[in-house]
Design a protein that fits this description.
Belongs to the MAGUK family. Keywords: SH3 domain. It comes from Neogobius melanostomus (round goby). This is Membrane protein, palmitoylated 3b (MAGUK p55 subfamily member 3). The chain is of the alpha/beta class. It has 2 domains: 135 residues, SH3 Domains (SH3 type barrels, Roll), CATH 2.30.30; 119 residues, P-loop containing nucleotide triphosphate hydrolases (Rossmann fold, 3-Layer(aba) Sandwich), CATH 3.40.50.300. Helices cover 32% and strands 18% of the residues. It has a 5-stranded antiparallel β-sheet. It has a 5-stranded parallel β-sheet with strand order 7-11-6-12-13, with helices on both faces. The protein starts with 7 loop residues before the first strand and ends with a helix. The structure holds guanosine-5'-monophosphate. The site of guanosine-5'-monophosphate (5GP) has 10 residues, from strand 10. Guanosine-5'-monophosphate binds next to strand 10.
């Protein structure tokens, strides 16, 4: 019944290029889309190919997209093929299954990047196919939304967040997180964090924003800003909060790379290694969490980023 109304919207969590898809019945009839695109499904009658339009697309004709079940099967099939290829490569070496498991774990560990040390991977076992969404139509009496900021290496989102709030404290509010890490000299208790101790642990610090503190800001009719490690998106992306997720990504210009070694880039204190780490961190973030992002803010400098964020 729902489908007859044709009010089914899906957010694509993977990229689809009909021209690369050998399974498509007709490449011209396929609808190419990117991760994060919103698709309006017109028909789900066929179990393998659904008909859909891309929201915001000027082309009004529906085209074919793989059904969720079909895409899931394709992903599974690719995994099985990959396993067979791996097994064929490992058997001649007579590796035990334990070392095979270790090889996979090692592969995962290698994805960790400098600066992302404490950011775990996105859940690798999830099938990222489609997510059903509804259109967000703000009513005049609607409470302001939660804004979740995530950033890659060098984005300095905490600073941005503080500035937005300082410029307009009537409109924006802060959900002050708790942390077990030591207070830095310029930080104040209750402003950047509530600094708490963690008994019994030694090195690793914990961070956490209570949902209650987010509720409090929203109840005061303010836009609530939080900056968190991206794995927190799993908790914050709820129907209740309907957060708007902004990924702040430092912009790296080709000219910056060329300038490396010249006095101007050295003056900024940025080395070629720093640029590479920033680039890798941004790509990693995009790969693991890009599908949850509503807006990418390419940060050139603090001033323009602040204006854009506001
Ligand atoms: P810093 O120690 O430099 O202030 O922050 C380190 C990281 O912790 C930042 O990337 C920040 O986004 C993240 N962070 C701060 N508060 C929270 C929180 O409440 N939850 C999560 N998941 N991450 C947080």
């Amino acid at each position: 019944d729902r489908l007859r109304e044709s009010r089914v919207y899906l957010r694509a969590l993977f990229e689809y290029t009909p021209y690369d898809d050998k399974a498509t019945p007709c490449q011209e009839a396929g609808l190419p889309f990117k991760r994060g695109d919103i698709l309006q499904v017109v028909s789900q009658e066929d179990a393998t190919w659904w008909q859909a339009k891309k929201v915001g697309d000027s082309n009004l004709r529906a085209a074919l997209i793989p059904s969720a079940q079909f895409q899931e099967r394709s992903v599974l099939l690719s995994l099985i093929i990959l396993c067979i290829v791996c097994l064929q490569a490992f058997f001649p070496l007579s590796l035990s299954t334990a070392s095979l498991r270790r090889s996979f774990r090692l592969k995962k560990d290698r994805q960790a990047l400098p600066g992302d040390g404490h950011a775990p991977e996105a859940d690798q076992t999830d099938f990222l196919i489609y997510e059903e969404v509804t259109q967000y139509l703000p009513r005049p009496d609607e409470k302001p939304r939660l804004i979740v900021l995530i950033g890659s290496l060098g984005a300095r989102i905490s600073e941005l967040k503080q500035k937005v709030i300082a410029e307009n404290p009537r409109r924006y509010g802060l959900a002050v997180p708790h942390t077990t890490r030591a207070r830095r000299s310029q930080e104040r208790e209750g402003v950047e964090y509530h600094f708490i101790s963690k008994n019994g642990e030694y090195k690793d610090n914990l961070y956490g924003t209570s949902l209650e503190s987010i509720h409090r800001v929203l109840a005061h009719n303010k836009v609530c800003l939080v900056d968190v490690q991206p794995e927190a998106l799993k908790t914050l992306r709820t129907a209740e909060f309907q957060p708007y997720v902004i990924f702040v990504r430092p912009r790296i210009f080709d000219s910056q790379r060329k300038l490396f070694g010249s006095s101007s880039s050295l003056a900024a204190g940025i080395t070629e290694d720093d640029l590479m780490d920033m680039q890798q961190s941004a790509e990693h973030m995009d790969e693991c969490y890009g599908h949850w992002v509503d807006y990418v803010l390419l940060k050139e400098d603090s001033v323009s980023a602040l204006i854009e964020l506001q």
